[in-house]
Amino acid sequence: MSIARLKIKGKDLTPQKAIKNPLLGSKNVLTNSRWEFVALWLKKEKKDSALFYWNQANEFYKSSVGVNIYTAPLLHYYCFMNATKALLTSKNIIFNHYHGVKHSGISSSRFTLQNEGIEIKSNGILPSLSTYFNETETSTVHSLQEIFFNLQFIHRTYCLSYPRQTDMFIPVKNVFFYYNLSTNEVRLYCELSEDFSNRNILKRLPSTFIFDRKEKERYFIKSNGSTTISNPTKPSVSDINNLINFNEALRKDLVFINGSSTLWYIKSNVRGPAKIDRKSSTLTLGAMHRLSELCRYKPLEFRKFMDSDKNWLINEFIQQSSEQFLDEIASEITGYHFLIPNIRSAK
């Protein structure tokens, strides 16, 4: 079987950050701040209400810089909430302006990640974000431990905090879409990262990915599903739509961490807390809501929370979530792929 990399507008097609309506073949947006780019984009598109929410989110973000860990969750949450409102409004989605999430947990004198959690309501901002992503998760109640376990950008910290936990997120590289030269069938192909390149990892793959081949000590996998396009060298509008839908299907178990390059991970099947079928944006918004409640209504208890043996994990979530969440939302609003500039010498 002969395959070749699929190109759109002369550019190798890779997984897209935007789950809905990514701009296939567009150039990456290199910026240290997504705020100005998204604001100008919303202004150009005449999305005035969305622009208002986005600018409001920016004000909360600026206020959060330099704030101590005991106050930051409150400002982060209102930043995230308004960024979400900007996304929903930019897509002309009508939503209830209530938070749509409440506290759920076990009554206990001890504040632990297992005891603290959230319940997602049927209406409001957070459930509207879940609906936007077409999430199929049936459970509406999640503990903070479950949420943190399902967030790729703090997963290494989670596994260090729970040393017996097996990594759920498998790093992959050389992630590209290829097409069959005979049938025009398109699949996603990638290689397991060196530290995860072994046969045992294959047993943990979700149903969306299967083993492809082994070359010496290198393991390659591919998407279980596929799509077909009519003309790989000049995709039609229908072809582009098929590829967008295929990318969305793959993103169920394919997630990224933002940076100067995009790091891709496969969400595998391992023992541990529940594997939640929700996007990291939804989970991040929900978890930050609960932490913001503790800051507002139970600040002394929150201080005790931060004195617990899992304080580094909580701290990393608070510190790392902004860049990841806002990168995800900015990509969804505009369809672009954002990267942090990495200055290097010309080759």
UniProtKB/TrEMBL annotation:
<dbReference type="InterPro" id="IPR026988">
    <property type="entry name" value="YaaC-like"/>
</dbReference>
<dbReference type="Pfam" id="PF14175">
    <property type="entry name" value="YaaC"/>
</dbReference>
<protein>
    <recommendedName>
        <fullName>YaaC-like protein</fullName>
    </recommendedName>
</protein>
